[in-house]
């Protein structure tokens, strides 16, 4: 990170710091930092604003999940107002939260499709307990959706909902390649009129080869011919796993309300994870342990107490003196590492909106 940028971020008030990802700039900041923020603003995608009303909590569903369900359902109604004998196919329905809410609020019939049998059982048990009268109009099917699922789904629809001829596909948190499969199923299903999908977790998309699990070549990315035409002559690695992961991180809307204490805590967490990642060797990874309170000052010992070393080649991997020396060296090099980590997070939040649009 350029030293001038660090100085600009260090001198910002908490209000200014929180507003940077929303487009705030100061004329006194360094020219290169202003250029970066101005270019980002030109690349940002403008989205429709919503009223921001906090949804009512529902049994067994978090406020965040309620918010997502209600907003997607509202958008579905905008795209396609509910009609008689209409069916919505819920791809990756999980435990049926969206499926039941759509039926409850619009009267649509719903076929929820889920590849995890335990989720199907939970959805059916939840339906029996909370929505017993919906057993005919909301049904669940165990099936792992692929690009070739269109015929299987069509057969199930005709058997379960023979009177439904107005059909749409939807999905909330259509993770990784599921969104791509949904698009391809839709294109091979002339009997479906609409596709309304909310993708997520782009970084979990399948790599082109098994050896590229942490690399940058994906089977289904990019799908856009125009984007693919740009990613040539060595630029293919731009769309890497880190790029797609960043597109999924928290938005500027959530960032803007963080307190000084929240920033400090988050900076400490991210700095600790960054330190550990920096000392790992090829084939090594860690299991992150929970801590009730993040220490104000990271030390070699409290770092290694939180992270358990794992190895592809050793069954009983242990931290070595080499690991400890590297951690100690980095702690001495970056005494304000937690602040630098949060400055970096601010810049990543600035990028998130642009990368999220690319991921879609």
Automatic annotation (TrEMBL):
The family database entries (InterPro entries) matched by this protein are listed as: Methyltranfer_dom (IPR025714), METTL25 (IPR052220), SAM-dependent_MTases_sf (IPR029063)
Q: Name one Pfam family in it.
A: Methyltransf_32
Annotated Methyltransferase domain ranges read 64-205
This protein's name: Methyltranfer_dom domain-containing protein
**Species this protein is from:** Anopheles sinensis
| Upper lineage | Eukaryota, Metazoa, Ecdysozoa, Arthropoda, Hexapoda
């Amino acid at each position: 990170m350029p030293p001038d940028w660090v100085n600009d971020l260090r001198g910002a008030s908490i209000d200014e710091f929180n507003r940077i990802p929303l487009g705030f700039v100061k004329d006194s900041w360094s020219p290169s930092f202003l250029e970066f923020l101005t270019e980002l603003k030109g690349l940002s995608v403008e989205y429709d604003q919503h009223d921001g009303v906090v949804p009512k909590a529902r049994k067994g569903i978090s406020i965040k999940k309620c918010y997502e369900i209600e907003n997607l359902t509202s958008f579905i109604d905008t795209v396609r107002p509910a009609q008689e004998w209409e069916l919505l196919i819920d791809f990756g329905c999980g435990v049926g939260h969206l499926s039941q809410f759509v039926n409850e609020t619009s009267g649509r019939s719903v076929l929820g499709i889920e590849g995890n049998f335990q989720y199907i059982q939970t959805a059916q048990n939840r339906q029996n307990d909370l929505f017993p009268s919906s057993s005919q109009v909301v049904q669940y099917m165990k099936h792992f959706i692929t690009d070739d699922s269109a015929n299987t789904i069509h057969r199930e629809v005709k058997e379960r909902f023979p009177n439904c001829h107005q059909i749409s596909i939807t999905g909330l948190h259509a993770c990784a390649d599921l969104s791509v499969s949904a698009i391809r199923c839709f294109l091979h299903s002339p009997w479906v009129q609409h596709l309304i999908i909310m993708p997520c977790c782009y970084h979990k998309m399948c790599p082109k080869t098994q050896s590229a699990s942490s690399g940058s070549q994906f089977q289904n990315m990019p799908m856009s011919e125009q984007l693919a035409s740009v990613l040539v002559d060595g630029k293919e690695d731009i769309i890497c796993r880190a790029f797609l992961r960043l597109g999924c991180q928290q938005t500027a809307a959530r960032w803007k309300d963080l307190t000084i204490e929240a920033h400090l805590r988050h900076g400490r967490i991210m700095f600790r994870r960054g330190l550990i990642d920096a000392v790992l060797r090829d084939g090594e990874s860690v299991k992150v342990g929970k801590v009730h309170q993040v220490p104000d000052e990271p030390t070699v010992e409290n770092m290694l107490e939180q992270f358990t070393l794992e190895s592809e080649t050793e069954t009983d991997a242990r931290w070595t003196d080499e690991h400890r020396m590297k951690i100690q060296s980095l702690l001495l090099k970056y005494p304000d590492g937690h602040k630098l980590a949060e400055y970096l997070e601010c810049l990543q939040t600035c990028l998130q909106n642009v990368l999220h649009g690319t991921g879609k």
